[in-house]
């Protein structure tokens, strides 16, 4: 994916959530409140939580989560090495499928988000 495609994919996700909210506002609002609460500063800082999100997104092959949490980690001050290391942990569990996401989408999204800053 190119940098603009990555940013477009994030916008597509946000637009999709907005469309879902039109049909199921309670579900969308509840989900958003829950995930917002999960990523609030707590015993773990937001950066660490987004690094965990990157690893879980890679492990599950969820491209939108990979993009969203790579951006979140970068926005919270994570270095490329920190994001990549967190993603690599998932390869210990997810093998080749996880590694294929790391060497493509994770690295491409880091390039896109660094360029945007």
Offer a concise description of the structure:
With 117 residues, the chain is mainly α.
- Biggest sheet statistics: none
Helix content: over 70%
Distance between the termini: 18 Å
Order of SSEs:
HHHHH
The stretches of 5 or more residues where confidence is low (pLDDT under 50) are none
- The 3D shape can be described as globular
Radius of gyration: 14 Å
Determine and state the CATH class: Mainly Alpha
Question: Would you report the number of β strands?
Answer: 0
CATH superfamily: AhpD-like
Q: Would you tell me which CATH topology applies?
A: AhpD-like
Domain count? 1
The number of helical segments is 5
What is the mean pLDDT?
A: 93
Give the CATH architecture. Up-down Bundle
Overall structural class, as computed from helix and strand content, comes to: mainly alpha
Query: Beta-strand percentage?
Result: under 5%
Task: Please tell me about this protein's structure.
- The chain has one domain (3-116): Up-down Bundle (AhpD-like), CATH 1.20.1290.10.
- The chain is 85% helix and 0% strand.
- The protein has helices at residues 3-23, 25-38, 46-60, 63-75, 80-116.
- The longest helix is centred in the last third of the chain and has 37 residues, at 80-116.
């Amino acid at each position: 994916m190119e940098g603009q495609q990555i940013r477009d994919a994030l916008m597509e996700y946000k637009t999709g959530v907005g469309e879902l909210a039109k049909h199921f506002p309670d579900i969308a609002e509840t989900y958003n409140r829950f995930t917002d609460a999960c990523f609030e500063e707590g015993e773990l800082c937001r950066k660490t939580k987004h690094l965990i999100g990157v690893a879980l997104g890679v492990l599950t092959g969820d491209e939108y989560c990979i993009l969203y949490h790579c951006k979140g980690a970068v926005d919270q001050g994570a270095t490329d090495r920190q994001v990549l290391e967190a993603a690599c942990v998932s390869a210990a569990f997810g093998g080749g499928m996880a590694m294929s996401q790391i060497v493509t989408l994770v690295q491409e999204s880091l390039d896109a988000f660094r360029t945007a800053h």
